Amino acid sequence: MKKIGILTSGGDCQALNATMRGVVKGLENLFGEIEIYGFKDGYKGLIYGNYQKMKPMEFSGILGKGGTILGTSRVPFKMLDIPTDDGIDKVPAMVKTYKKLELDCLVVLGGNGSQKTANRLSQEGLNVVGLPKTIDNDIWGTDMTFGFQSAVDVATHAIDCIYTTAESHSRVFVIETMGHKVGWITLHAGIAGGADVILLPEIPYDMKKIYKTIDKRTKQGKNFTIIVVAEGAISKEVAKLPKKERKQVIAERPYPSIAYEIADKIREKYTSDVRVALPGHTQRGGSPDAYDRVISSLFGAKAAEMIKEKDFGKLVVMLNGEVTAIPLEETAGKLKYVDPNNQMIQEAKTLGISFGD
Ligand code: F6P
After folding, report:
1. CA 183 / ligand 1 centre spacing (Å)
2. For residue range 288-325, what is the model confidence (pLDDT) as tens digits?
3. Would the CB of 13 count as within 6 Å of ligand 1?
4. How far is the CA of 167 from the centre of ligand 1 (A)?
5. How far apart are CA 95 and CA 126, in angstroms?
6. Distances (CA, A) of 123 to 119, 127, 320
7. How far is the CA of 242 from the centre of ligand 1 (A)?
8. Cα–Cα distance between 233 and 341 in angstroms, integer?
9. Interval 202-224: pLDDT, tens
10. 59/24 Cα distance (integer angstroms)
11. Does the Cβ of 134 fall within 6 Å of ligand 1?
């Protein structure tokens, strides 16, 4: 009988359960009987041997349920070779758990850092299949990650809600979206929500360009402005600094986050009514949307097929609309940034959206 370990690692998202359901349904159909070992709270469960033997039934009825039934945690890749607080060597401990359970494969649902660890475990000789999770959509090698579209939907809804109140009160609103170091959520939700200004980490902004948009709108008789900013966005001045200094400036910023800094600058210039809104972790919560349920199911089925074919050491990805797989070592350690010259940005500029550049 096939013994499969499964874990969810890193920040959660809406379609983790949907993806696990896809994996387990696929395995059941391809192998008949299977043994599933669900590790609690991501790699921590593998390190400490904290697992549950689970029945396929336990993965039923969770297609639309957000979060993860296994729990998750962050075990940073850069800390992998540093023992846990209680002195356990992480990699040997994970290998030991895998071998003790005589697993045929470990399925890892995770983002960039988690897939780097998956690659490391594969190099240690474990059979690993990765699945691309993250609301940030920043995994190199896949057009789409599961969780992204649902997060874009939430962020778009937040912009829609702000739009009406901004208009009623003639206010400038700065809405901050998640995305870590990349601007995918911001770009998509900004366009979907009809933002006037979209600020991405990949395109450092100039406050003067933001003022220009506000002035232009005022001249047109539009009394409100919607600015959507990625949490990782930086100004042109900050972008010019050497990496170390840049990090320090960001860490010591006298504001809770970038949206507040931008709002404050606008307030200083116009003494006008400016507000900040942060959808925050709502972008990761709630149910997966229909698109995510579809790709999660397909990704899960593909992972099951790969296990059947003993095609290990790979990450399931979507390339040009097709579900396929790439070697973990090819994607590990690389981020997929928004290309400032991409067509979406060019067309958005034609629509009159400012990127602050
Ligand atoms: O990677 C997903 C993500 O939601 C990022 O967009 C964000 O920067 C980060 O995780 C937030 O992490 P935490 O849940 O630890 O606050």
Report:
1. 13
2. 999 999 999 999 999 999 999 999 999 999 999 999 99
3. no
4. 30
5. 7
6. 6, 9, 28
7. 25
8. 17
9. 999 999 999 999 999 999 999 99
10. 7
11. yes
